[in-house]
Amino acid sequence: MTTQKIAGLKKQFLEEIEKVTTVDALFELEKKYAGRKSEFNEILKNLKNLTPSERQAIGPLANNTKNEIAALIEAKRQALSGQQNLAEEKIDVTLPGQKQNIGHLNPISIVRAEIEDIFTGMGFEIADGPEVETDFYNFDALNIPADHPARDMQDTFFVKGENLTMRSQTSAVQARYMQLHKPPFRIIAPGKVFRNEATDATHEHTFYQFEALVVGEKVNVGNLKHVAEVFFSEFFQTDVKVRLRPSYFPFTEPSFEFDITCTMCGGTGCKGCRGGGWLELGGAGMVNQNVFVAAGYPRNKYQGFAWGFGFERLAMMKYKIDDVRLFHSGDLRFIKQF
Amino acid sequence: MKYSYNWLKELSGTKLSPEKAADVLTMHAFELEGLEKAGQEFEGVAVGKILEVKKHPNADKLQIARVDVGGAQPLRTGYGTPPLSTGEGDKDGLLIVCGAPNIAVGQKVPVALVGAKLPNGTEIKATEIRGEKSFGMLCAKDELGLGEDHSGILILDKSAKVGQPLAQYFGEADTVFEIKVLPDRAHDAMSHVGVAREMAALEGKKFDYDFDELKLSAKKSKKLSVVIKDKKLCPRYIGTVMENVEIKPSPEWMQDRLKTCGIKAINNVVDATNYVMLELGQPMHAFDAEQIQNHKNKKTEIVVRRAKDKEKLVLLDDSEIILDENDLLITNGETPLALAGIMGGKDSGINENTKTIVLEAANFHAINIRKSRSRLNIKTESSDRFEKDIDPNLAEKAMVRIIEILEHTANAKLEGVVDIYPNKIKPWKIKLDLEYVNSLLGENVTQKEIVKILNSINIHPTVQPNKVVCEIPTYRIDLKTQEDLIEEIGRLRGYEKIQPQALLEPVEPAKKNEQVFFERQLKNTLANFGFDEMYNYSFYSNRDAEICGLGGIKHYEIANPMNPDQELVRASLIPNLLKNVRQNLKHFESFNLFEIGRVYYPQNNQAEEKRMLVAASVLEKDKDADSFYSMKSAVENLLESLGIKGVAVSFAETKSAVAHPGRVAEVKIYNHAVGMISEVNPAVLAKYKITKRVAMAEIDLEKLLAVLPKTKKYHPINKFPSLTRDISMIVPETVTYGEIEKLTKKIGGQLIDSVSLFDFFKAKQSLAIRITLAAKDKTLESVEVEKVMEKIISSLEKELKVEVRK
Predict the structure, then answer these.
(1) Domain boundaries, chain A
(2) Interface probe, candidates A303, A332, A334, A336, chain B, greatest B C-beta count within 10 A
(3) A256 contacts in chain B (CB < 8 Å)
(4) How far is B174 from chain A (nearest CA, A)?
(5) Buried-most residue among B337, B565, B632, B774 (CB within 10 A)?
(6) What is the model's pLDDT at position A61?
(7) The pLDDT of residue B171 is above 70
(8) What is the rounded distance in angstroms from the CA atom of residue A42 to the CA atom of residue A210?
(9) Residue B690: phi, psi to the nearest 5?
């Protein structure tokens, strides 16, 4: 009798659950078939009043059925809640994203990191020196003796009452490094430099340079050209040729002005290079023997090349920036573009 | 310096066009900064004479000129050009509307006729300007491509012939070369002969006129004596007396050349001194012999001596200068006549009545000239050359040339010469190792080629095995070493011939610069956290230092700052970053900024240089020190990214002049202070006119790098489950969260996995902490947990007097 009743209840349940379409209805159904006051619960409660043999016959059936019902209800609940909630949770995907600020590096930092990586890859060590520099390293060691015109007030910021200057070129690192290292070596020295110069769209009194210095016994002008061409080709991701023109710097002999093929037209001539096909980049040369001597090397034992280029110029070329003062402007409307 | 191409061409015999010659010079010798046509073809531009000037009836600033162009025919450009006859009476002159204020009746002016196309692109058409017809244009200098001047119409010489094409008026077209002569060649190349020598060498030509063989007349002057009191400051002085001088304008060709080179023509004597200076690079001076006569002894004597302290001299330009003992004077034995090598005196110069002159070709000590002229702030063509150091032998050549010129242009007669030259400079020798030439250039230049190149610049080497011995002409003061000669060979031969070649030295892994890569890592991490990078000047003002409480730090001062706002070398990154904040608040409501840079100050007589990181945050809204806590979290995250977290980091109350006294904490790592986080003191913000709260962090990067763990270490993940317990409490005002956390950890000991704040009501002084407990070797039993919790709670109650809610 009880067995039939259980079977009947199950059949009835299966019919009803089919019709359930809402979570509320399912809740009612659950109450009816699995609740504390449900018929089923009554049956289970009465099991203890049955004889052992009856209990053995009905017990497992009742329990299994109860579990089956519970499982079906749970499955139904999941099906229902899934359908409904997902539909209700439709959103406007075109609304803006939750704002997570992203910061930006100054383009000089970006360019500097690229350059450091290229040179590190070519076996160059990154060297460094102080920005407030002694007269010795900024001038004397670079073959600029006390009375040299390059020490004129208009070029350099001098520190009052001290034999100190705001270093006027990263070349000041040369003697510092050479005093501690023996050739052969290859280094770059990136850093901040200062010139007492009125500022405008193309001039800054504070800017960033990187010095390259390669010293060995047979380092020559051809090596300078090669290293420069490899570097600039990598930096601009295009085939760059280098052109040297005569120039003068106290710390190099011979000295060069340094041009590269225009990175926009490749040297055929365009607006960017004013039709000439070449872009002026900076100064270079073969290390003056007096510089080696000042650093403690014997005269004419070593040969080396050096150059100093401005990061600003390279960043301006790379990003088409037209005013050098922007780098130190602190203006987020500028910085946030990088 | 400006050079006349025609002059260079005459000297060097070049066959190259100005443009080509400019290219060759740039690639092999000197950089050309400009190339400007001195006489254009000026097609359609004629000399006109102004017959009448009247006001424009409808425009205040315009005038109408009637100009006689002597029947010069306008260019017909076809369609659209009205026939001239429609102009009102071209027989009586053309009517031309003109805006320039400097025209007057009788002047000769350049007239661009209808149809002319000017160098600046302007096409001249017959037109109507405010109702008045205009048949051409009167031209200013810039419109003719003759310079930058647009201040008025170019007024031509009175002698100009009306109707003459302008090109004829200007004579043969010249080209101005603006050449940047660098200090190493300023000794010889600030002259036409110097540059022409380069051109001749590059084209394999020889000079017609042998300047090197010029020899001074042996005729001793009977009228003049010369005494040099300081032979170091004046190694040579040649004085020459010329008589029967006729003062008049120089010949036109000479005036033209001076003009092309930017020097005003004055009279034949003064012009000759300038002409020789431009030709040879030797500055010269001419005195009126009568004016310089010593009135006491009636002798014409030149005495070169140092000035007395406070001695005065009125210069040619009427300025009075006060001298000191380092200045060198040309005197007549009594009164000063000229500031040696820099500028002549007012009273000793040439005037129209001058009959007898004393010419000076001297040599002065370069450094001394530079010191004098920079102290006195006078810069002249003469000082420009003397301060670069010139060859004393040049004085002789120059004197020969000027005598030769004045004999022609002033009918002057040489009376005699005095030459004081005690230490004669002779050519010197350099031994050049041929192997070194190729080793340095990275080329294989043959001995034959080397000899040929050296010969082309008047160095005539003697060949020896593997080397050449070079005798250097004395005007090449720059050639002192082998490398100097290698440069000559390299550039004259052409650097473009040198092939790029890989370094022979083996590549070894570059030693990593920790500091550089550490800073890069920090920058990238901060950018990922939403911080934008600032680059600031290394300078600020005394006021900045004061406002930011840095007044107590001794700063380096710049002796020659750009402006008073930049007189101190920064000892802190904070002032400039606060200025960045103020600036950006104009355009943004909230932002995070940082700068990594160096600060400098004197310490123990040495320059202390520290690398610092400073960050600033401004939030849109800041209720309960939100920006402070957001900055704190940023710092914690930054440290965690470097492998520093948990017990390693602590924050303690501290003081700082720039900080809000109640919102500032020292950042400690393993108990070493590395920096500070704070809210900026509102008083400081007010001085910078910043109206929002600003949180700031300052970290000493060297200190941070020193405590940085070298590697990160893995700790095994705990296999046993953890339990959490919350304690909610009311806290006395004096007790900090830090104390609560610290005590909890101390009492909980090994079993504490973490303590965190999960609820905080400032108003009610209430907070709740969540404690996570776990053991590393077993599953914790609740008895143990409850025991620990009881101990924690009772300690909190006893030691910190908190009231735990139960």
Answers:
(1) 2-88, 107-335
(2) A332
(3) 495
(4) 24
(5) B337
(6) 83
(7) no
(8) 90
(9) -100, 125
Residues B448 and B493: their CA atoms lie apart, in Å, by 13
B334 phi, psi to nearest 5 deg: -135, -70
Q: Mean of the pLDDT values across residues A266-288?
A: 87
Domain A107-335 homologous superfamily, CATH: Bira Bifunctional Protein; Domain 2 (3.30.930.10)
pLDDT band at B373 (very low <50, low <70, confident <90, very high): very high
pLDDT digits (tens, 9 = 90+) for A313-336: 999 988 989 899 999 999 999 999
Q: Token pair for residue B721?
A: 């489950």
User: In angstroms, rounded to a whole number, what is the distance separating the alpha carbons of residues B470 and B152?
Assistant: 55
Q: Tell whether B556 is within 8 A of chain A (Cβ).
A: yes
Give me the domains of chain B, ranges plus CATH numbers. 2-38+175-209 (3.30.56.10), 45-170 (2.40.50.140), 213-420 (3.50.40.10), 428-494 (3.30.56.10), 514-707 (3.30.930.10), 723-805 (3.30.70.380)
Looking up tokens 């090349």 gives A305
Q: Computed over its alpha carbons, how large is the radius of gyration of chain B?
A: 41
Phi and psi at residue B761, in whole multiples of 5°? -120, 105
Q: How far is CA B702 from the centre of its chain?
A: 34
Going by C-alpha positions, the residue among B25, B13, B70 that lies closest to residue B47 is: B70
Which tokens go with B705? 């790098």
H-state helical runs in A89-196: 107-121, 135-138, 172-180
Q: What percent of chain B has pLDDT over 70?
A: 96
Q: Mean per-residue pLDDT for B722-735?
A: 91
Locate all alpha helices (DSSP H) within B148-217, ordered by sequence: 166-170, 186-189, 192-203
What percentage of residues in chain B have a pLDDT greater than 90? Answer: 63
Contact flag B516-A126 (C-beta cutoff 8 Å): yes
Question: Across A10-19, B146-155, B406-415, which has the greatest mean pLDDT?
Answer: B406-415
- Across the beta sheet with B31-37, what order do the strands follow? B2-4, B175-180, B31-37
Is a pLDDT exceeding 60 seen at residue B568? yes
How far apart are the C-alpha atoms of A212 and A188, rounded to whole Å?
Answer: 4
Looking at CA atoms only, how far is residue B537 from chain A in angstroms? 7
pLDDT-derived band at B324 (thresholds 50, 70, 90) equals very high
Look up tokens 């080793």; give the residue: B439
